[in-house]
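Problem: given the chain below (171 residues), write out its structure.
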Amino acid sequence: MNPLKTRSLLLPLLACCTLAVADHKPGAAWSWHIVSAGADESRLAVYRQDQLLGIYDLSCDLTDISEGQGDDDNANLNLVKPESNPEGLLVISCNVGAHSRQITIIDLAHQSKKSVFSATGSYTASWEIQDGELWIGYDEPCDTGPTVDCPDGFVTTFVQYPQPAGEAGSN
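Solution.
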């Protein structure tokens, strides 16, 4: 390959990589930046103080991610501090494919390169703090298909994260 052509291809790549780390906030309690984003998969780097906590592979589109709860058309990332996890959880909500929605949780107290929870709804997935704890809701097809008890063909499942100690392992 022609060295001049290689150099001309390398410069935009280096500029892109430089921009990718530009939104890490040194000295902040936590920060993040997108390593790569696409329709089917994205990579997110998360920092605690100035230490890289991990780079997380997500099977969703983080192209238009922003902080704070937003509409279901874009990805969003929130620092949530339920009573059971005072150090905080990063809750990421993003689109998967044509119509599905995913909630992924990264625990800032763990030095793990994997998320601690992920759920994908057929059409919807959401979260809320209720009585000081994090609850995730997502829709899934009814076992029986559309019926009188399930007229839309989908039911919403609610789970608490983390599950209370007495309920761990039962669903």
